[in-house]
Design brief:
By secondary structure, the protein is mostly beta strands. It has one domain: Porin (Beta Barrel). It has an eight-stranded antiparallel barrel with strand order 1-2-3-4-5-6-7-8. Strand 5 and strand 6 form a beta hairpin.
Length: 187
């Protein structure tokens, strides 16, 4: 429930930031991370140009299902990024400030991990132009996250209930973004 509150706050703030962009500079791209698609985690994003060399992106990933009883990668994540493009918005190199809000539950056999965190970091990417409207954009970002992590043989139950699990709460390094994104540019 806490995550839903934060997600609503982040989406509302992002909506107002994007809505303030001048109409003459409005160009958008619809995006999908191919790495998450390969992991059967449906995702969708939007990258909105807010100035000549600046854009703002918002991505959402949701995989609410189990593959089998012993193997699953359930996750929900919201990522936002302010991108400064070194050439022109949506083309060539960019530097970014990334924010991420994530809740995941990964299980392989009896071993699993459950994470809930919020993170902030910096990133780099490059947009390869395939044709007039399609780009492929690999990018990576590193940063710090604050949140909780439960690992062990039964990670769905908190360790205070006598289950073999390790709980950690605090700040840790993370990848804020690791993607190979297909981007459809709307003009």
């Amino acid at each position: 429930m806490k995550n839903l509150k934060w997600i609503n706050i982040v989406i509302t703030v992002l909506f107002f930031v994007v809505a303030q962009a001048p109409a003459k500079a409005q160009r958008m791209a619809v995006t999908s991370n191919l790495l998450e698609d390969a992991m059967l985690a449906p995702n969708l994003g939007v990258d909105v140009v807010v100035a000549d060399k600046q854009s703002f992106s918002l991505d959402f990933t949701c995989a609410p299902y189990k593959l089998t009883e012993n193997v699953h990668n359930k996750q929900m994540a919201v990522r936002a990024a302010y991108k400064f493009w070194l050439n022109q918005a949506l083309y060539a190199h960019f530097l970014s400030v990334d924010g991420v809000l994530c809740s995941s539950d990964v299980k392989l056999g009896k071993i699993g991990s459950r994470d809930e965190y919020v993170g902030l970091g910096v990133g780099y990417g490059y947009s390869f132009i395939i044709n007039k409207n399609i780009n492929i954009v690999p990018s990576v970002g590193i940063g710090l996250a604050y949140g909780s992590n439960y690992q062990g043989t039964d990670h769905m139950i908190k360790p205070t209930e006598g289950v073999q699990a390790i709980a950690t709460v605090g700040i840790r390094p993370i990848l804020t973004r690791l993607s190979v994104t297909i981007q459809y540019v709307l003009k």
